[in-house]
Design brief:
With about 270 residues, the protein is α/β, with parallel strands linked by helices. The protein has six helices and nine strands; from the N terminus they run αββββαββαβαβαβα. The two termini are about 35 Å apart. It binds hypoxanthine.
């Protein structure tokens, strides 16, 4: 059983009782958003009992508590992935802790491969739904009734009101927001071209190695979810180019300002 109290107590002690409203999770190469947070307390994950250490490249592994547009934000600068070997309970532990500290919304960002051929590298996709292809679910095992119900509904997992706000904000900023379905694989190998063709038939628009476990756990514990995916590369087989972490990170760097601006605008508006 994960010890939520120990983690909450430690964060409270280090932050003087900071109460987050919004959790923002930064995906690969999107760490630039951290600069927008007027930081009050920065805590390395290693200092919080139960928080796993981020090992993924470009994931810093620190919790930044502060404000963006005068809203109290807990920014996870670096997320945990299934492929790092944390186990899904470890992957979703931080968001559950932050929920217990008061957050009621979570904004997730991620890097993805574009499956929909009308997308181009650098596009931002508002996630409307997902396909869980990781073969497991973070809610497997005994249900903690204090967190949520045994069988949570996923029909409105991607909160319609937050999606509407995101679309308005993108319009205001002149960002052409794409919309679509995210499919989660475990990684860490990228997908094969045959898998990508299969995923297109299944109705997926973009593929990544994260986010879905967090969305499921977030819905379970009553957080309103918004997810934005950056298309950092076209998925395997589409261009014939080999996929590299460097391309993913480079697109992240190039588009970090635009995606960060959109996230800030949404924080202001909600
Ligand atoms: N596949 C899986 N995860 C990813 C990709 C991809 O093509 N790009 C960025 N993250």
């Amino acid at each position: 059983m994960m010890d939520y109290k120990a983690a909450c107590d430690r964060i409270n002690e280090l932050s003087g009782g900071f109460k987050p409203e919004i959790i923002v999770v930064l995906g690969s190469g999107l760490a630039g958003f951290a600069d927008r947070v007027k930081a009050e307390t920065v805590i390395p994950y290693g200092d919080i009992p139960g928080f796993g250490i981020s090992t993924a490249p470009y994931h810093n592994g620190r919790l930044i508590l502060g404000t963006v547009e005068d809203k109290r934000v807990a920014c996870m600068d670096g997320r945990l992935h299934l492929y790092e070997g944390h186990g899904l309970e470890g992957v979703v532990f931080p968001l559950r802790v932050l929920r217990k500290l008061g957050a009621d919304k979570i904004f997730l960002t991620n890097a993805t491969g574009g499956i929909n051929t009308s997308f181009k590298v650098g596009d931002i996709m508002l996630v409307e739904d997902h396909i869980n292809f990781q073969g497991r679910n973070p809610l497997m095992g005994p249900n903690d009734e204090e967190l949520g119900v045994r069988f949570p509904d996923m029909t409105y997992a991607y909160n319609p009101e937050l999606r509407r706000i995101a679309e308005e904000c993108a319009d205001r900023l002149g960002i052409e927001l794409k919309k679509g379905v995210y499919i989660a694989c475990t990684g860490p190998s990228y997908e094969t071209p045959a898998e990508i063709r299969a995923f297109r038939l299944l109705g997926a628009d973009a593929v990544g190695m994260s986010t879905v476990p967090e969305v499921i756990a977030a819905v379970h514990c009553g957080l309103k979810v918004l997810t934005l995916s950056l298309i950092t590369n076209m998925a395997a087989g589409i261009t014939g180019n080999k996929l590299t972490m460097e391309e993913v990170a480079e697109t992240g760097r190039q588009r970090s300002l635009v995606l960060g601006g959109l996230v800030s605008e949404i924080i202001k508006a909600c």
